[in-house]
Design brief:
The chain has 274 residues and is mainly beta.
Length: 274
């Protein structure tokens, strides 16, 4: 995979701020040709929005607006080391990550540093995508028919026009998922603090493994209870082996189908018919 690490490409604009603080902004747009079926997109943001749109075949296009801030010039230079914007691409995939996979460990020496990224991407409709952000932003995916995984920590996730999902998650935020067909595979749709809405075409079939604490289920489809296999998680602590068994409530829509794990600690679940 070709590494296209981005540092001072483009024009940086210096703006004022607190005494000694350094803030610089940049924006850029880049197109990557892709070949073959189901090209792959990975975007890991920390501060800001991530939006993905389906477009024509043959290319992935990125548009990024960046604001980098640090309390001092020295910390600003440090932020370039511990929070670089890493861009990699080959003939069938594009990856954009702020700080790489171990960003949290490497960002600790740069207290007060921040890199806000407003990321918008256009991909072929059959692309497989994995996108996420953490703070002060939303994740939105529109019209992508390949496998979609989208997550947030402090904010909402909106997925519309999808055929299948692998994972749609947040910690503090609502989740909206709209599918264009009856689900073809299992998916995890989970938040801690937020409502969940899943919209399905008329005649869809699926099973829901529902785990709610403070909330209720509302459905525009006829649903019936169904017994599901419990999930078993095995962990090892030295010589001890521990098993965590979870028995979610089972609900069946239509003739049933793939199991969607749907969880919210504080929020309602709505199943809508479209």
């Amino acid at each position: 995979m070709k590494n296209l690490t981005r540092m001072f490409l483009g024009v940086w604009l210096l703006s004022g701020g607190p005494a000694g603080a350094v803030e610089k902004t940049d924006s850029w747009d880049q197109v990557f040709p892709v070949s073959g079926n189901a090209p792959r997109l990975v975007v890991h943001n920390v501060w800001g929005d991530v939006r993905v749109n389906a477009s024509g075949a043959g290319e992935i296009r990125l548009a990024v607006a960046e604001r980098r801030w640090a309390p001092t010039q020295a910390l600003f230079e440090r932020s370039l080391e511990v929070l670089p914007l890493l861009l990699e691409a080959d003939d069938n995939s594009v990856s954009l990550m702020l700080g790489g996979q171990d960003r949290w460990q490497r960002s600790n020496p740069c207290r007060g540093c921040r890199v806000d990224l407003d990321i918008e991407v256009w991909v072929p409709a059959d692309a497989e995508i994995e996108v996420r952000t953490v703070n002060d932003g939303q994740v939105r995916v529109d019209g992508v028919e390949g496998l979609v995984s989208a997550s947030n920590v402090n904010g909402p996730v909106f997925v519309s026009g999808a055929r299948d999902c692998g994972r749609v998650k947040s910690i503090n935020g609502r989740l909206d998922l709209t599918l264009t067909r009856s689900p073809g595979q299992a998916c995890e749709v989970e938040t801690i603090n937020g409502d969940i809405t899943i919209a399905l075409p008329t005649g869809s079939g699926m099973d829901l493994a529902v785990d709610l604490f403070n909330g209720s289920v509302h459905s525009e489809f006829e649903i019936e209870p169904v017994a599901l296999e419990p999930s078993v998680k095995k962990t090892r602590d030295g010589k001890r082996v521990r098993y965590k068994i979870n028995q979610a409530g089972g609900l069946r829509i239509g003739a049933g189908g793939p199991v969607f794990s749907v969880k919210s600690l504080n929020g309602d679940i709505a199943i809508k018919e479209i």
